Fold this protein.
Amino acid sequence: MTETRERSLPQLLPWHEDAVAQLRKAWAANRLSHALLLQGAEGVGKQSFAAWLACAVLCDKSAGSTLNCCGECPGCALFAAGSHPDLVLVMPEEEKQQISIDQVRAATERLTKTSYRQGYKVAIVDPAHLMTPNAANSVLKTLEEPSARSLLILVSSQPSMLLPTVRSRCQKVTILRPSRDQAIEWLRAKSGHAVEPALLEFAGGAPLRALAYADGRFDALNEHMQKSLGALLAGQADVTQVAAEWEKDALVERLTWLDLWLSSLARAALAGNADLVTFPGRSAHLPSPSQPLNISGVYSMVDRARALKSQLARTALQRELAVESLLIALMEVLAPRPADGQSEPSRKRA
Ligand SMILES: [Zn+2]
């Protein structure tokens, strides 16, 4: 039983220290706000931090003492079992992209009621920026008339999408990204093997996101991207087929890879320093920084890759065709410039 309990207790991460110190200080001075906005990039562990905070506020031993999730008391046991009666978790309902007013109302009403365990009542809204405008307005009322010993935790990686009036009424707690060295060290310990800095860069510096790719997924993606681009540039691959492959499997990750690779390629060419290429070329057909490069063309491809990525989230555009046209443009930009009198290398098209 103890094992199960330990497993489901929320874990803090090494780079959460500052935020923990901030909250412990407020708790000790009896100045913990009724509403917190827990903000930070994707993949820095906001969820586990929010869970730790809820557990700590509900922990029987925290009252009048250090804010902590002890893991031993009945409060912590209920938390670990996922059945603490004074905790409400609000997330988008399955298949939905939003948090509705009904969900928020149920949670904020719970905060106004008496605690079942004579302690705090806690509600976590995650991600808070997915609240509908009505839901956000309903939260606003709670922020203006908070109940005693209640804590509302709004979690968001995009706090600028929240109503300014909601944002301004919350105490901000920011989870910063760890330093590169700290992240690499943590990834090494977690994954049990050495981790390339390129993986962390691919994950936008976010360790949890990087960890999700550290099991070989990133290596496979990197390998496949280099292979398919190399084959395209060598005229050995069918662009329609490659577009279909990309569309079917991890398109967003592929576009992220492309963005980083192209940006670093342009930087490397400008600086004349091959070490600046983020994913060093493993295919002979990929351009090397020593070759003349159409730098403005490369930057325009970076823009296109980013634009395509943001459109995929919003619209049901015909992804495959969009990828295909991106690849055709990319080949134009990256193809070695033919000297006078030479013809363009032939490229297969379906
Ligand atoms: Zn406890």
